[in-house]
Amino acid sequence: MAATPADVIEHPDAYAFVVDMPGIKGDEIKVQVESDNLLVVSGERKRENKENEGVKYVRMERRMGKFMRKFQLPENADLEKISASCNDGVLKVTVGKLPPPEPKKPKTIQVQVA
């Protein structure tokens, strides 16, 4: 499932990562932040064992197995403000933004008169 579709959206106060996860329950999805501001979404879609005697798959097109997506977070991402929710097969991870740094004021140096 390397081609799991995802959208990355920038809001004024946060980033949103929206990933399609059809058929996967929220508790089967793992969301982590690794070193170097790397957001990792992983999990596994398992095949339903519904084959009974005399019943077999004629065609199997849906991807099964483990998947992983990695996203490089921007430098202004606030790693303390991360939330994730899964609704109707769509995972949404929200990462808050750090406030912009205060502009440095120029330092004034007093000239000594000799």
From TrEMBL:
Q: Name one Pfam family in it.
A: HSP20
> Coiled-coil stretches, from where to where?
none
UniProt keyword terms in alphabetical order: Stress response
The answer, when asked if Ribosomal protein is one of the entry's keywords, is no
Top-rank taxon: Eukaryota
Which residues belong to any copy of the SHSP domain?
1-114
What protein family is recorded? Belongs to the small heat shock protein (HSP20) family.
What is the recorded name of this protein?
A: SHSP domain-containing protein
Q: Which species does the entry assign this protein to?
A: Brassica cretica
